[in-house]
Fold these 3 entries.
Entry 1:
Amino acid sequence: MLESFMRLPKSPPPANHRHVQQADLPAEQIYTLDPVPLSRVAGCVLAVLLSGWMLAVPIALIDRLKDASGPGTAVLTGGIIAFALVTAGLGGFRFFNARDVRRRLSGALIAALAAAVTAAAASALLPEYGLLLAVPGLLAGVPALVALATDHRRHRAPGTGN
């Protein structure tokens, strides 16, 4: 009974279970990640913001778009929504995986953003939309395209020709 009340001294944990501080390691064992390029982050943020706006405008204008004549408005609205969804998805994925070096992913985001900017510019031809998509498409989409294209050209995957 007396043994159950006694505390036995704890032995130190095995070496593979100890918490290692960074200061305990030699300099050659400390691994730091390269910084994420600012142009990639900025391009992804602008792409996602533009996509959100491109999804919000058709929803806000739904009453005006229902009464529009001709199939052109419906086709363009469908294209705007599709391009905005793809751009938002790829932009968000690229933002949260900014260290990913896959060039195809970056190229797909650039292509989707270019299609979204083109659809936004084309929406200026329809009176239902006016400049609600064209101006943000040019003010946010074009700088995002430039930033992502610059990043795509500059940063290549290590050890590959890509």
Entry 2:
Amino acid sequence: MQTSNTCVFPYCNRPARGCDLDHTHPHDRGGPTSSDNLAPLCRKHHRLKGNRGWRYRRRSPGTYLWATPAGGIYLRDGTGTIDLTSPDTPVPASVRVRVNAEQPPGKPPPPDDQPPPF
């Protein structure tokens, strides 16, 4: 029984019909291949989760709690994504550098409406 219509990665809305089915509790650690242990992840996010340190757990049918390698926490359900990360969670410099590095050359970064955290 499918409980999610889209990829369950935070902020992703790719249709579930084109997604991989991922074991929320890893199969190699005893997670069963059953509807209550499978969630749709698009191929991009399935690889990201498997290789980049993102983790998640199913909280209830269609609801998932995600943890990022940088300490972010996201709740994903059928209505969308809620960022539960504490504003006091520091963002490591390595993550800030990667985000800034993704800015296309010759284009200024978008304005930051928030004051610096110091």
Entry 3:
Amino acid sequence: MDIRQASNKNKYNVVSSIYDIVAFILSLGQAKRLYREVAARLRVPTGATVVELGCGPGSVVPSLLHKLDPSSQIIGIDFSDQMIELANTHKSKNGWNNVNFECMDMYQYSPVNKADCVIFCLSLTAIPNYQKAIDKALSILKPDGQLLILDSIPLKGKWYYPLANLYTHFKALIVGAKPAAGITEYIDKKTKIQEKHIMVGGVYTLLDTNI
């Protein structure tokens, strides 16, 4: 486990109340746009179950609710009790009746019914062993289920990618992440990538896949 990831539970408990501010700053003001992009790529049926692993305070939920029908269900999982407490506050305040948040290690999450879509939104690189985390996500998906991953993944190929990668590694020190170029390769082996969308000058990558 990377030392940056090892202390994440305590770190996220401490910063939970200002998480959205930090996300706004480190995303160069693009956090809400990123959340909308994730929601826009949902391909799920009416009455779908969508699971977000590493949901934080529920920041992406408003965008997901805007896309999903009222009979769908969103389940947010996070290991930070303070993040889940804040997420539940947002739920009560906004009347998110079809949203449930659970505080637990994601590997302990064992749903009765499998999900139509699993989302990692700015969380995968903060989880030790991204391969194990991806395998867990795939294990709770229905056949042909959708996996959406939004994160900062080091890139190659464009002249400006080294600058984007430098910023990615800088902010990783702050948020407790470990950027790994191997994420895309691993996803390509395990799923059928429908789209790879590069955003914010290469700082963020959105992988839209199906199993």
